[in-house]
Amino acid sequence: MTASGVRVRIAPSPTGEPHVGTAYIALFNYLFAKKHGGEFILRIEDTDATRSTPEFETKVLDALKWCGLEWKEGPDIGGPYGPYRQSDRKDMYQPYAQELLDKGHAFRCFCTPERLEQMRESQRAAGKPPKYDGLCLTLKAEEVTSRMAAGETTVIRMKIPTEGSCDFTDGVYGDVSIPWDSVDMQVLIKADGMPTYHMANVIDDHLMKITHVARGEEWLASVPKHILLYRYFGWDQPVFMHLSLMRNADKSKLSKRKNPTSISYYSALGYIPEALMNFLGLFFIQISEGEELLTMDELSEKFDPENLSKAGAIFDIQKLDWLNGRWIREKLSEEDFRARVLTWAMENDRLMAGLRLSQTRISKLGELPDLAGFLLKSDLGLQPSDFAKIKSPPEEILEILNTVQPDLEKIMEWNVETIEAELRAIADRMGKKLKVVVAPLFVAVSGSSRSLPLFDSMAILGRSVVRQRLKLASQAVAALVGSK
């Protein structure tokens, strides 16, 4: 433990591209640790076995390292309270679940997914918020034993008080009171034996001696469940701090459906990590006009966790662009700038892979910018007219783009082979020839109908950039459809 005793953590789930919201929460914890002379810990919460992948875990670690964040303990470097990956801690949770059962704080539930869905539909139809109705709460021990012996699938749920409220003080929101009758009987251990987030994060935070839990405000409503678990186990609870969500300019929640949210997207477009951290760090400090350009050390000096805003943090891309430009012009020497450009161009093998694909497709080097320049562009500047030469009518092009976008999100590992397989499957599902499906994708991804091989290009650009380019292409084609 540190002299201050402060230990904080970031605990991302490796279920997709690392989100700028993860960097936002991680930065707060990092600055909090630096401010108090404490320790910043990284833990991987991969309890969702169906969506968590090693590829996404690697992307999380790489993204946070790119941001300039350093952790004292984590799955990549170990530490005294490991393992730091929840799937590696699976056997640790069972004794605690059994303790809750033995003490009467939890119960086994045999309800099927079908029965639970019918229950929720009935509750919604009655205008009630859906939550577990307690059917298995009063099962006798003999029935539980016999049903388990018969091989019935079971989960473990926590018991919730029926009266009163959970009252606590949040580090940002102050005094909070949540009625117990609004709290669900949360599943703690799933049918596959893995803990849910609520169970695992409380146990892990206790065992890792976490003193302060800082996370997004969407978790505020879950605090009663967590406090109850601390009480059931007889443990001291940490200080909770719930940070306002990052939002778009129209105050809507920042989501990949509206705007690029992946850290990898901003890295690929040539934003520098110091500028992104500077931009996110301004949400946590009070400054005067003209003091916006701050290093990590300067952010740490000005950081004041006692004076945080509850107002939504607005992700203003124009301000980020402005800060990034200032960092490039004012903070980088000529030598630093050249090094950054080369590092960026080589990221994910973008430049070398592009050159390999280009070599057999050009007759002189001067053709390279037109052929492969799209790999390095931040914006293709797509116009409706760019799609006019495609043989398919605009309505069919729009259908293809709108079908491909969500289907590509299903790809677990993003590479040439998986991209090709998914696009072939999409063509089959749509009842179209592959060449009909890929024709508008060439334009959407490269800005031209003559380009490098599509599947390779998509793999090089990365999921987050492809996602944004397809979205912009859909908007351009929608304008073409609307003008008819």
UniProtKB/TrEMBL annotation:
Domain of life, source organism: Bacteria
UniProt-recorded Gene Ontology molecular function terms: glutamate-tRNA ligase activity
Reaction(s) the record says it catalyses: tRNA(Glu) + L-glutamate + ATP = L-glutamyl-tRNA(Glu) + AMP + diphosphate
Motif extent ('HIGH' region): 12-22
Keyword tags: Aminoacyl-tRNA synthetase, ATP-binding, Cytoplasm, Ligase, Nucleotide-binding, Protein biosynthesis
Domain Aminoacyl-tRNA synthetase class I anticodon-binding: 339-472
Role: Catalyzes the attachment of glutamate to tRNA(Glu) in a two-step reaction: glutamate is first activated by ATP to form Glu-AMP and then transferred to the acceptor end of tRNA(Glu).
Record's protein name: Glutamate--tRNA ligase
